[in-house]
Amino acid sequence: LSKLVIGTAQYGMNYGLTNKTGKVTDYEMKKILDLASKNNIKTIDTAINYGDCEQRLGELSINNFDIISKISNLQDIRENLKIFTAKTIEKSVKNLKISNLNTLLLHSTNDLLLEKKHEVYEAIWNCKNIGLCEKIGISAYNVKEVREIIKYFDIDVVQFPFSVFNTQLLESGLLFELKAKNIEVHVRSIFLQGLLLMNKLEINPYFQTWSNLFENWENWLIQNDISKIAACLL
């Protein structure tokens, strides 16, 4: 269980395909984190642009958790990037009421692919150097982009989608390339925002195009006598 990470987008936003109730309440947040703590789940994933998520987490005494947070669109910043990034992360740490982040991720791979990529890298590396975070990395969607980034930049972590319906991390060989470089891999979207946990009759008509996949998924679960949650986690 210690490998599991608590995602917190719903703590600060009305996020998720299956979300019918909006943001998680303070009571529910505390209950989730207490349960996680009791079961040796020690990591929380959040982001600066998840609404008021960081402030709400900061009210819940999360010092016993490792915190991953993400910063976005540094390519668009016109001021000194090193100063801006350090100040932004300092504010984030203050909101969370912790001493430092375990991991700082770039929310967009463009930040290490476009014109200011070297300035951006210097800015996040500086955050690590001055102790605002212990590790730096990227949150990515595209195998080719990750390969391009790890070719030129020394990073500690790559966060990448991986699920029953999306196995490109494995099939492309990227997982093994990252392992060879001692880069930590965090997989996300294992439930596809809850889509893989829904009854096929409740799925939004938008996904009708892939109805055969959902049919196969449901049949496979029955044949193997396994729950949706267990299958997604495994």
Relevant terms:
single chain, alpha/beta, 10 helices, globular
Would you give an account of this structure?
The protein is an alpha/beta fold and 234 residues long. Helix content is 40%, strand content 15%. The protein has 10 helices and 7 strands. The chain has a 7-stranded parallel beta sheet, covered by helices on one side. Helix 4 crosses helix 5. The radius of gyration is 19 Å and the shape is globular. The model has no long low-confidence stretch (mean pLDDT 93).
Radius of gyration from CA coordinates: 19 Å
Q: Main beta sheet: strand number and arrangement?
A: 7 strands, parallel
Could you name the ranges where pLDDT drops below 50 across 5 or more consecutive residues?
A: none
Number of extended strands? 7
The termini sit apart by 12 Å
- The proportion of strand residues reads 5-15%
Which term fits the overall shape?
A: globular
Q: Please, how many helices?
A: 10
Protein structure class: alpha/beta
Measured as a percent range, the helix fraction is 25-40%
Task: Name the strands of the widest sheet in spatial order.
Answer: 1-2-3-4-5-6-7
Mean pLDDT, nearest integer? 93
Q: Which H/E pattern describes the elements? A: EHHEHEHEHEHEHHEHH
Provide a concise account of the structure shown:
The chain has 234 residues and is an alpha/beta fold. 40% of the residues lie in helices and 15% in strands. Strands 1-2-3-4-5-6-7 form a seven-stranded parallel beta sheet, covered by helices on one side.
Write the topology of this structure.
Layout lengths: L4 E3 L1 H4 L13 H13 L4 E3 L7 H6 L7 E6 L9 H16 L4 E6 L10 H13 L3 E7 L3 H10 L4 E5 L6 H4 L2 H7 L3 E5 L22 H14 L3 H6 L1
Parallel strand pairs: 1-2, 2-3, 3-4, 4-5, 5-6, 6-7
Helix pairs in contact: 4-5
